[in-house]
Amino acid sequence: MSVQITTLSNGFRIVSEPMPGLESAAIGLWVEAGARHEAESQNGIAHFLEHMAFKGTARRSALQIAEEIEDVGGYINAYTSREMTAYYARVLRPDVPLALDILADIVLNPAFEGREIEVERGVILQEIGQALDTPDDIIFDWLQETAYPGQPIGRPILGPSAQVAGFTEGDLRRFTGAHYGPGQMILSAAGAVDHDMLVRLAEPLFGHLPAKPAQKPEGARFFNGERRETRTLEQAHFALALEAPAYRDADFYTSQVFSGALGGGMSSRLFQRLREDRGLCYSVFAQSGAYDDTGMITIYAGTGAEEIGALAELTIDELKRAAEDMSEAEIARARAQMKAGLLMGLESPSSRAERLAKLLSIWGRVPDISEAIARIEAVTAQGTREHAQGLLARSGMALALYGPIERAPYLAQLSERLAA
Please, are residues 169 and 110 in contact by the beta-carbon 8 Å criterion? Predict the structure, then answer.
């Protein structure tokens, strides 16, 4: 059994991977259109579309969509990212045709009925309000906006409330008309699936769609900057970013391993130094995310008003120290964590289907898992230190702070400490 890929004449791609022994399947449509494909006046519309997919089609009401998938014990959901929107389902083997029919229906034939638009508008405005009331959620949107100011990739996925309040049916249809072409879609499935059957089912559902050119989003440019929002909260929230490699960059895996060793677990430097040794915080982590043309290493911690200054300064010190003396043992541990996470994810058909779609979108093929493992294993302590030194030397920093932050140092102070 192996990955199979078929491309219809109009550019629609189908990728699948059977998983012997399973009686369930994960199947979904990944559309290469997310928040960074929006014009400024459209910010939030990709996410709005994701919500509206479940509010009825030309053939099904919102209730019928829910009932049909749940009548067979299935599950259906969606999400929006900065570069993709995904609509996916989990069903038993005999119900794969039903799941695909429903997914095609909600993506290709949304009704966009006026009352349902208003109902879902209210739901999304509540979602935006909830995010604004969740400090360790909203701070990452602020960090993204600070690192990529005035750019589509820097705007929040949910969009601003004032703009979401004005979206119309015409706005929704214009966005799908521009970005939901067959060449921008990937049907991905894993588990109890048969590739030939998927192709036969997909042909009448998607094969008739006219091809349309993909609209390349504006390129990303990382900037230095900071955002400080003082508010009476129990904790001060600290988020720091450095520009990292993009998906296809040769240093992608090195950056992933470095961020894991820096703050990816309980044994990581930041966790041990900031929490275990100094007791400055409860939660602290580092992670490396990537996009088509850029990436970002993010460090986050929540701490008290009195401790924020020491935490920020110690974080910079640990960044500098990691670039100088990251050990082979630390890198080996981070490599092991990364490999384990990758391989454990393959045991889930949902994770595997998502992986297939993302890799096909990035590379135009699905590299064998052995390629990823080999690249992870090739990361060395020396290479990681050199990579970290390069990041700190050539890249600025973005900083977001929220809460009782009066004692927090400014970005200029942290930059001076980093350069000292």
Answer: no
Among 17, 32, 38, 50, which one carries the catalytic annotation? 50
| Cα angle value 292/241/337 (rounded, 5°) | 75
Predicted pLDDT at 420? 85
Active site residue 50: yes
For the stretch 66-118, pLDDT in tens is: 999 999 999 999 999 999 999 999 999 999 999 999 999 999 999 999 999 99
Q: Using CA atoms, how far apart are residues 307 and 297, in angstroms rounded to an integer?
A: 23
Query: In which region does residue 11 sit, left (phi positive, over 0), alpha (psi from -120 to 50) or beta (all else)?
Result: left
Per-residue pLDDT, 34: 97
| Interatomic CA distance for residues 242 and 220, integer angstroms | 14
Tokens in use for 77? 């959901």
Assign 96 to helix, strand or coil. helix
For residues 281 and 364, give the distance between their C-alpha atoms in angstroms, rounded to a whole number.
43
**Averaged pLDDT, 137-157:** 97
Query: Residue 343 is inside which H or E element, if any?
Result: helix 328-345
Residues 6+ apart with CB under 8 A from 410: 226
Question: What single-letter amino acid sits at 326?
Answer: M
As a whole number, the mean pLDDT across the chain is: 96
Q: d(Cα 289, Cα 359) in Å, to the nearest integer?
A: 15
CB 334 within 8 A of CB 286: no
Per-residue pLDDT reduced to its tens digit, 8-35: 999 999 999 999 999 999 999 999 999 9
